[in-house]
Amino acid sequence: MTDRIAHALRAGTLALCGALVASAGAAEYGQVVPEKSEIAFESQQMGVAVPGRFPKFTAEMSFDPARPEAGQGRIEIDLGSIDAGSPDANTEVKRKPWLDVAGFPKATFVASRFRALGGGRYEAAGKLTIKGRSQDVVAPFTFAAEGAQGRFQGTLKIKRLAFMVGEGTWSDTDTVADDVSVRFRLVANARK
Questions:
Q1: H or E element: which one contains 13?
Q2: Angle, CA of 94, 99 and 100, to the nearest 5°
Q3: 41/64 Cα distance (integer angstroms)
Q4: Does the predicted TM-score (pTM) go above 0.85?
Q5: Among the listed residues 67, 182, 75, 184, the one whose alpha carbon sits nearest the alpha carbon of residue 114
Q6: Domain count, the chain
Q7: pLDDT tens sequence across 25-76
């Protein structure tokens, strides 16, 4: 009887130690580090790539790579901060036919579901809202732990006309392509 009790205690202790080690290795990532993060985009104008970026944005997340299904996140982009490559381009894309920054100063992505794809690859599904129009989107990304931080990096492909970006004469996709690639790199601190 004593051997059985001792064996059960050893087994219980080993299981507890294993659980503690596993939980010590797991981390949830939350606070985004703005100076290490970036949201950029690329469109095509008459077949020529036109890059740009949004220097001002906020991001909140709760993501554990061991339990991605419990994750959630929100990104809010200050559209007025757009850098489209020149002062003239910046002025033009803020106008009503394009981003209509006066009427809709922010774009948001709210992730309601994360899913692991294997090999450090994931996807975030949620709603993207631009100019008051919302679309369900899925953003594929990779995740890598880097010390006490994690790096989320991916590209989301969207159709600008689904959000009425480029109305009127600008809706001609021979001049400005409908496809836009939004690239993101978010660096977030780990919470243990």
A1: helix 2-25
A2: 75
A3: 27
A4: no
A5: 67
A6: 1
A7: 458 999 999 999 999 999 999 999 999 999 999 999 999 999 999 999 999 9
103-129 burial, b at 16+ Cβ within 10 Å, e below that, comes to ebeebbbbbeebeeeeeeebbbebebb
Mean predicted confidence (pLDDT) in 169-183: 96
Which tokens sit at 116? 């692991």
Instruction: For residue 90, give the CATH number of its domain.
Output: 2.40.128.110
Q: Does 121 map to a domain? A: yes
Task: Let me know: does 79 contact 94? Beta carbons within 8 Å.
Answer: yes
Measured CA to CA, the distance from residue 128 to residue 141 in angstroms comes to 16
Question: HSE on the CB side for 39, CA within 13 Å?
Answer: 22
DSSP 161: G
In the chain, the amino acid numbered 48 is V
Q: Report the C-alpha gap between 8 and 25 in whole angstroms.
A: 26
Structural domain of residue 83, as residue ranges? 27-191
Cβ-contact 151, 186 below 8 angstroms: yes
Query: Mean pLDDT over residues 14-31, rounded?
Result: 53
